[in-house]
Amino acid sequence: MDHADTMSQSIDVAVAAIRGADPARFDDPSPCSEYTVGQVVSHLAFGLLLAEYAALRKDWEEGWSGTDRAPYLVDVPESQWAEKAAAQGEATRRAWADPAAWDGEAGFGGGAMPAAAIGSMMIAEFVVHGWDVAAATGQRVEVGGPLGEAVLEGVNAIAPMGREGGWFAPEVTVAPDAPALDRALAASGRDPSWTP
């Protein structure tokens, strides 16, 4: 599986989780302990937009911090968030389908980094936060094979920085032969068996 296919599959996971989340549960807690379900949905929606900008080498708009509500969801009824996020997911998928998106450096968060590293990080972001939304709303996420390994690789690449920065909880212990997604979740400080 190539990078673009892996990115596409990770976007599918994120969008499916958002589509399956009832807005009535947006105030519920999520495995991402700092965020409610609705906040994770918005964070994922924003991530889709930021990933598109990185692939296209577009600068972030003035005032974007990446931590606020996704700009395209502001003043939009929560019942419409899934459709808006799905449309953004398609734009992001198209942007990363271009092999050039993975080459060289791209701007992200005020600095430049290798585009392939941004892609890897966002693949992990989409699946892990997609799992957050799914787990909190009674959905199941099936991730195996190359996508699971890509998520694990992406999480492991940023986990030390994430724990140091406080946006990952301490690593959770799982069996060494646990599925790749479970190991990725554990490395990001999540209990793969979390339930609401």
TrEMBL record:
InterPro entries associated with the record: CHP03086 (IPR017520), DinB/YfiT-like (IPR034660), Maleyloyr_isom (IPR017517), MDMPI_metal-binding (IPR024344)
SUPFAM superfamilies according to UniProt: DinB/YfiT-like putative metalloenzymes (SSF109854)
Domain Mycothiol-dependent maleylpyruvate isomerase metal-binding: 14-134
Coiled-coil boundaries: none
Name listed for the protein in its UniProt record: TIGR03086 family protein
